[in-house]
Design brief:
Strand content: 15-25%
Low-confidence stretches: 1-22
Order of helices and strands: HHEEEEHEEHEHEHEH
Helix content: 25-40%
CATH architecture: 3-Layer(aba) Sandwich
Structural class: alpha/beta
CATH topology: Rossmann fold
Mean pLDDT: 89
CATH class: Alpha Beta
Number of domains: 1
Number of helices: 7
Distance between the termini: 29 Å
CATH superfamily: Nucleoside phosphorylase domain
Radius of gyration: 18 Å
Length: 295
Amino acid sequence: MAQSRIQTVRKSSPRPSVSRSVERSLGERVGETVQVLRAKGVGSPRVGIILGTGLGGLLKEVRQSATIAYPDLPHMPRSTAPTHRGEMVYGAIGKTGVVVMDGRFHLYEGYSAREVAYPVWVLKALGVETLLISNVAGGLNPEFRLGDVMVVTDHINLQGTSPLVGPNDDQVGLRFPDMIEPYDARLAELALSVGQSRKLPMQRGVYVGVVGPQLETKAEYRWLRAMGADAVGMSTVPEVIAAVHCGLKVLTVSLISDLCIPETLKPVNIEKIIAVANRAEPLLTQLFTGVVQRL
């Protein structure tokens, strides 16, 4: 499933510390993070990218101008998941300015939904207009195959929370954002077009976000599929809500790393999931590179 499928093989670690400034608004904290990024050479990129497992190769396509580790940024959480280096990379793909989050955060790590989503508000403040997100997910749709790339058309939030819980900063976004179309339809069609032109195994569907880190039972997989989900994972939803909140256009793709069909379900083999992600890395790199070049 999502990043947590890989993380289940790790021993639990203490909750990473995050500097908190209760007295300052969200916008003020974001401003402080952006100020440091500007001082370290980050300009005004058009596109933000949040990397999931299987997309690390994309960094090879970025003409990098600046790389900043999360611990060097005020208010930024720490990335603890394996393969997530915990860096923000600024540069360009072709002629388009991009900033890449090489490392994301999850609720199961002990972070709040607002902490998970914090980098999205930072990206917006930097000048980002379009947000590309990748994740690794378990396939619930019986027509899916290992290594398929699903363009997310909608999601179901079963994480029991939202990054918008608590005081709202009207300078950052709306108190009650409409979620009728969290994933930009034009971007979804663009991704499908790029994928099909490059003969990638493309699908489209609904992503359901859960907390984890435990994987689902057979009964839960049946329930999730019955409610209309095509893939299940433990990330992405908080970031997408924050993106809608602050007015970003969103494209999300899920790499189907394992199949969650109750009738044929087998115990998850972490090594196989990693192998699927590694094999799919060039496909996802082709897809995101092609999309950025055609924006």
